[in-house]
Each structure stands twice: as structure tokens, then as C-alpha cells.
């Protein structure tokens, strides 16, 4: 029997990137295509100690059904973690635990989006956000970004024109742009949320991965304390995936109480609750105070790799490529210039690169509309410096 | 700002049961209200050994992002577990891992249900199924059950009348009915799936919890090998929640390849994948061969408690109540008869019972339509035999 699937599936395409990923198993390939942290950096000992503590101290809670809102001690630890990053007054009740921050996006879609509703995203933005919101019937509008994040004047014009259900931004080292929204623009975003009474979603999985000594500007969540009325129009999504372990699937969502209540109701019927085993392990890990050390270690390694990749790109590809050197995160977002008749098509370069045993993701699929086909996303996170240099040399040969 | 939520939220009510559950913290209360296994039965040592093995043998896989379809070694273990229960030819590729079987229901809704589609469920059925499918806009039709499960003649009539998107059944020790669908009816369900080309969903979280020596009749999945054409019209949802630990959030879904492919695509945007840490732990647990011993232990304890509760109900409530003694699972589903002018309203009895420090769930909310207000669900799983007898005596006093 040909099965008769739900209409909403017509809103998504199977990703062109999936085809690319099938080729990544090729022996000898150097891959800059991933969107994940380096497994070699995982604090396995710390997680083992935390898991054992969870099973010793609270086996019932760690293995039984739990509250849909999240495991109490983890909510406390996350609130404390966020307060240390400037969200000064955050209480555990103001956040719910989600199964990775991907589920926070899904719950936002389920809670907020009726078919035909408009949502403004960055162009480019996280691929799984595009597909997630489209499954709920959203019409996505792209707001342009530059090296300092979303262009707020253009964003305000789009808000006025489209009256969106919400605006979704990854302000800090965004995927794929790597861009850091500057502080002036952060204030402008919060001000326009209040002025236009528009909900803003801040997705922030990368904010802890800054290079150098100085943290990035305050998150929209932390900054909202300085912009009266903005906090009630702000959702903030966080995650342990990029800084500790994606495999725990522990994320969280801060938001207005009414929205969190609806999202909790939806989550009850999505997966009942996030694994209490993973939550209790994460709570013990944070409680043990290992996170600052872990973060310092990964920041250092990613900073070195980002610098090496930037240097190699400038050296090997010269005027054939342009990019803003990232100040954090996992990605360099670059654009082929086509200078001197060089190739300016990211998808074509990706094909040639695979033949030369190096992989990256072409940029076009990251746009909800009007793709810039000359763009590419390169992850430096999972490759050692020697291999980065070798891989970029292969990329230059492919260009 | 009053937030403008998605229209789909209008399809669900906040549960009356939630109000009841708030009262369960009352000191001294004996609760038969839960729908969960007994924490005291968890094989904490076995899970600890499994988690440590996962982190020792495969730390990268256990902590990194994983395939949306599920962690390979766990899919193999689950397929093997299912083959041992009669699904003889099941391969790992024919199932995906879900974040508890609640997520399997959510993915079915997302993949299959367009607003206005009809779905046939049992009356009564699992409360979270009703809400989950309604969030996707399903119109639910209730098929009546008796002590031997869904009445298949009535079910066929409803299929012919409503042409549903699918039929959802909990054939083995269902929640809340506790009923066991007999073998003749199982064959009838598979035959009508083929005859009417109707998809059937078998939710089976309780099938391993049989009392006595003899397992229940083969699952619809296992039996489908004997009914040509039925396998391609069958989805089977399984779970470790009731037999090992709900906190792992490990469930699975077997189904036609095309449906699994669409469900996997939807899952990618729901939570990316189920916790690899929990999956690797579950895989190591199953690999270690501890499951048969764990199952034997919980079967014995739940069987004793079910017998004690049945005896106490007959002794204490006499002709005021009627029920079929369950042969497995976690629940006794009972009906107040109103004999000799006794109370015949489950919700009213629940209120009086709380005053007498005993709790259960009234049955009406378990019906998608035409509730029988005289029904109640009593869980015997988490209460020792002394407390069962005391609690039922209090219930009799409330009646």
C-alpha cells in the first residue's frame, strides 16, 4: 500500500547535504564538514564520575520517570551556570530542560507556529532550524547578516513588513556564519522586540566557545535586564552539546512563563521528559565544578585550530576566498570571490574537493531563501592543525 | 504582551488528572495513581556496570552525536530481544530508536496525521496518546474493549465507516484497561488491516510483564509473519521504560521502511537523536544478558501485588466493583457497579479517597469520547502488599 503521509511533510526536502555526508566515509578524507565538537576533547573521566555519583546518590531519580520541566537539581545547576554568564536573576523555574536544544526548537514550533505563520531567521541560519520550523508550516523570511551578525536596520524593516510570529537568531558565533553580533546591535534587537512587541528567540549553543581572554558581549538574555520590557519577549536556548557532550542530549529553554507552560505541555506528549539518567549525570558534572576547566581546554584548542585554518586559507586560497576570522565557535564561513576567473560555486567546489579527499559543506542550503551559492562552511573543530593545513592545501588545489 | 500561540494547542485540554497528581504529595497517602514501575526494582548495579562499560569501551560513540535512526549496537540488541519474543526475521534496519515510546507516538503523529484525519483508538486508551495525536489535529474515534481487548467486530465496522489514517492499539495488558487481546482477535486485527489496507499501530510497553509461566499470545508484530501482507501495514512500538528504567528514555519503533524513513527525517528535527549515552548504556545492558533475570524478578513481584490487590478489592468492595483480574502489566481497570445504592462515579470516589489518604485515577479521562464515568484505574506496581491491603480498605471506606 502506498502510505498516505501527513501534508506537513511536503514542506521539507530531503537535504542535499545528506548525499554529501554519505561520501564522508571515504578513506583518507579530511573533513571540515561536521557541525560537532571533537570527541577527543570530551571529559570522559568527569562524566564517568558524574554518572556514578548520580547512580549512587539518587538511583531512583536517575532511573525513574521525571518531571517534564526537567530534573530539579539540574535546573538549579543550569540557572547557576547562566547566572555566572550574566543572567543575574535567573531562577530554576524560569527554564525547562530539553532533549538537546534541537528539541527547544521543535517545542517552539509546536507551541507557536500555525501553518502560514511567518518567522524571521538569519540568512544563512542553522539548517535544522529551517526544516524544523517548516514542518510546522512556517513561512521563513531571511534577514541578511554580515561579519557582525544580523543587520538590525534590515531586520527591523522585515519585522514591520511581515509581523512575524517570532525572530530566530544565533547571535554568538552562529552556525554557519560564525559571526558575533556586536553589542550595539544586541541592544537594537531588544529595543525592537519591545517597540514592535515581537518575540525574539536567542539560540546560543556556541557562546562559551570564545577565543582569547575576553568573553563575547552579554547574551540577549543577560542584556535584557537593561532593556525594560524585553525579557518578557525573549526566549533563550542553551545546550551542553558543544561544550560538554552532545550525547547527553541536554539543552534548555528560558522564556516567558506562559510560553514555558505551553512548551512543557507539548513536551509531555513529545518525549515525556529528557532522560533523567543524562540529566542527573549532567547535574552531578556541573555540581562537581569541572565545567570551567573543560571550557578553558576546549577554547584553547579550538582557538588554535581556527587560527591555523584562517592562516592556511589566506595563504593557500589568497584572493579566491574572503571571510571574517571567527572569534569563537566551530566554523569559518567563507565566500568564493571568483577573482581572476577562479571558481565561485560552493557546490561545485565541494564536488571537486571530495575528489581531492577534502570535504566541507557548501553554503547555499543554509539559506531559507535567496541562497548565496558562492558560500561555504568549514569546521575547524575536529581536525588537528597538521591535517587542517593539508586539507586546506587540497582545497586550494580543488579551486 | 499576550502571546499568540499555535492553533493546534486549542485541540488539547490541560488534564484534570494533573490536579489530582498535585495532591499526591500529601503525607501518609497510599497511591495507586501512578503509571510507572517500582524504583525499588531497578537493576541499579547492572545499569552502573553497563554505563561504565559504555564509557570505557566506546566513549566517543557514547558522548558524541549519533545517527538519528539510533546507535547501531543498540539496534542490534533490540532486534535480537524482539526475535527472542517471536519476531523471527527482524533486522536492526527495520527499527529506529526513539526517546521513549512516547516519542514513537509523536513521530507517528508528525509523520502521518494531517489536521482532520481520523485515528481509531481503544476506549479507554493511554491518556498521552489521546493528547499527542490531538496536537496534530487528529479526530479520534473510540473502539470499545472488554476483558479480552478491543472488540474486533466493532473495530471493523468503525474502520469501514471512518477510513482512519491508522488504528492504535495496546493489545497486551493495555494502559489503562489491563486487558489481553486474545489470539483470535489478534489474527482478526491483522486480517482486517490487509482487507481494508489500514495501518495498525501496536504499542507494546507491557508485554514482557506477564504473570505466571506462560507468555501472552504472540505480538501482532510476531504474528504478522503468519498473515500475508500484514507486516507492511503494521507499526510496533516497544520500550525499556516499564521493564528496565524509564529514565533511560529508550524506546523503539518497527515499521514499513518508507514510514521509518519519514519518521527518521522528522526525528532529526525533533531531537536529532536519542541520548547516545543512554543508548550505549542500554546496549551494554542487553549485551550483558541481564534482562531475563531482571524480567523474572519484576514479573514475580508485580504478580504478587496484582493478586493481593484483586483479592483485597473483592473482599473489601464486594459487589460495589467489577473487574477482570489482569494477567500482566501494571494496572487493574475496574468499574463501580452502583449495587445497593453505592457510589458509581469514579471522579467523586477519587475525591473521597484522597480525603481518606488513598489515591487512584478515575477512568473517564482515558476515553477519547463517551467516557464511562464509573471506571477507575488502580496501579498495584509501586506499593507493597501490606500497603495494598490497607489502601484498598481505605478505598472501601470511601465507597
UniProtKB/TrEMBL annotation, chains A, B:
Its cofactor is pyridoxal 5'-phosphate. GO terms for biological process: alpha-amino acid metabolic process. The keyword Protein transport does not apply. The keyword Ion transport does not apply. One of its GO terms (molecular function) is pyridoxal phosphate binding. Transmembrane segments: none annotated. InterPro entries: Aminotransferase_I/II_large (IPR004839), Class-I_PLP-dep_aminotransf (IPR050859), PyrdxlP-dep_Trfase (IPR015424), PyrdxlP-dep_Trfase_major (IPR015421), PyrdxlP-dep_Trfase_small (IPR015422). It comes from the Bacteria. Residues 54-395 form the Aminotransferase class I/classII large domain. Keywords: Aminotransferase, Pyridoxal phosphate, Transferase. Homodimer. Belongs to the class-I pyridoxal-phosphate-dependent aminotransferase family. PANTHER family: AMINOTRANSFERASE (PTHR42790), KYNURENINE_ALPHA-AMINOADIPATE AMINOTRANSFERASE, MITOCHONDRIAL (PTHR42790:SF19). This is Aspartate aminotransferase.
Amino acid at each position: 500500500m502506498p502510505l498516505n503521509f501527513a501534508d506537513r511533510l511536503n514542506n521539507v526536502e530531503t537535504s542535499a547535504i545528506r548525499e554529501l555526508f554519505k561520501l564522508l566515509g571515504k578513506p583518507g578524507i579530511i573533513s571540515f564538514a561536521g557541525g560537532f565538537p571533537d570527541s577527543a576533547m570530551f571529559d570522559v573521566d568527569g562524566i564517568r564520575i558524574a554518572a556514578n555519583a548520580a547512580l549512587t546518590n539518587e538511583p531512583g531519580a536517575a532511573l525513574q520517570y521525571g518531571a517534564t520541566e526537567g530534573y530539579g537539581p539540574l535546573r538549579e545547576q543550569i540557572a547557576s551556570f547562566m547566572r555566572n554568564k550574566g543572567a543575574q536573576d535567573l531562577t530554576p523555574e524560569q527554564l525547562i530542560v530539553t532533549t538537546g536544544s534541537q528539541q527547544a526548537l521543535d517545542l517552539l514550533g509546536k507551541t507557536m507556529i500555525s501553518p502560514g505563520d511567518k518567522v524571521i531567521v538569519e540568512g544563512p541560519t542553522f539548517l535544522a532550524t529551517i526544516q524544523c520550523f517548516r514542518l510546522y508550516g512556517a513561512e521563513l523570511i531571511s534577514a541578511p547578516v554580515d561579519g557582525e551578525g544580523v543587520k538590525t536596520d534590515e531586520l527591523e524593516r522585515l519585522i514591520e513588513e511581515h509581523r512575524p510570529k517570532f525572530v530566530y537568531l544565533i547571535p554568538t558565533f552562529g552556525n554557519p556564519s560564525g559571526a558575533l553580533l556586536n553589542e550595539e546591535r544586541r541592544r537594537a534587537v531588544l529595543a525592537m522586540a519591545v517597540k514592535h512587541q515581537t518575540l525574539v528567540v536567542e539560540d546560543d549553543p556556541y557562546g562559551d566557545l570564545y577565543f582569547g581572554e575576553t568573553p563575547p558581549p552579554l547574551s540577549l538574555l543577560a542584556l535584557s535586564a537593561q532593556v525594560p520590557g524585553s525579557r518578557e519577549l525573549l526566549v533563550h536556548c542553551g545546550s551542553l552539546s558543544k561544550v560538554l557532550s552532545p550525547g547527553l542530549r541536554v539543552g534548555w529553554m528560558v522564556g516567558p512563563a506562559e510560553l514555558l507552560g505551553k512548551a512543557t505541555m507539548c513536551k509531555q506528549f513529545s518525549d515525556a521528559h529528557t532522560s533523567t539518567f543524562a540529566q542527573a549525570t549532567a547535574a552531578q558534572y556541573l555540581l562537581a565544578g569541572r565545567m570551567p576547566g573543560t571550557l578553558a581546554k576546549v577554547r584553547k584548542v579550538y582557538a588554535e585550530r581556527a587560527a591555523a585554518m584562517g592562516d592556511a586559507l589566506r595563504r593557500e586560497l589568497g584572493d579566491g576566498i574572503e571571510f571574517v576570522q571567527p572569534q569563537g565557535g566551530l566554523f569559518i564561513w567563507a565566500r568564493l570571490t571568483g577573482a581572476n576567473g577562479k571558481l565561485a560555486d560552493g557546490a561545485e567546489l565541494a564536488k571537486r574537493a571530495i575528489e581531492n579527499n577534502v570535504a566541507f559543506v557548501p553554503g547555499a542550503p543554509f539559506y531559507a531563501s535567496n541562497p548565496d551559492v558562492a558560500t561555504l562552511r568549514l569546521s575547524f573543530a575536529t581536525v588537528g592543525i597538521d591535517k587542517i593545513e593539508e586539507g586546506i592545501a587540497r582545497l586550494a588545489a580543488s579551486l
